[in-house]
Amino acid sequence: MLEYILMVVPVLFLIGSVYYAYRTVSLGKHTRRRAVTRQVAAFVLVGVACVLGSLTAFAANGDAETAKAGGDIGLGLIGAALATGISGIGGGIAVGNAAPAAIGATSEDPKAFGKALIFVALGEGVALYGLLVSILIINKL
To answer: What is the DSSP letter of 112?
Structure first.
């Protein structure tokens, strides 16, 4: 029963922080920028608490070798998720900035389509490299 409570508490905390941010912005107490900053801080705190909680659970198991193996697998999966997620965000930002510029350059000079397409594809390549790294990490586990 305790495991279910520990799984629900972070979700409830994040839902509560979203409601609090929405409420303060709609009432005019905070700006949107401040609300987003608080949301990011809440997400980071919940993420750190979940990682530390899982590492503590492995350490409390009593068997040092099992704790080490379980911790390595868990941290490897977290690393793979971070590689995919951060590279996906970076690729999205790159494509979001390059694609409108490519469309504008193509509308002015249709011969520039090939060059513009290369810059958009470079931004997408970042996300593919992150996915490749995460696949390599998961295969190594």
So the answer is: G
Report, in angstroms and rounded to the nearest whole number, the Rg of the chain calculated over CA atoms.
21
Contact assessment for residue 134 and residue 80, using Cβ atoms and an 8 Å cutoff? yes
0.85 exceeded by pTM: no
What class does CATH assign to 63-141? mainly alpha
Q: If pLDDT is split at 50, 70 and 90, which confidence band does 70 have?
A: low
Where do the domains of the chain lie? 1-60, 63-141
Write the pLDDT tens digit of every residue in 82-116: 889 899 988 888 888 888 988 888 888 888 888 88
Residue type, 30: H
Residues with Cβ < 8 Å from 49, sequence gap 6 or more? 10
* C-alpha of 59 from chain center: 26
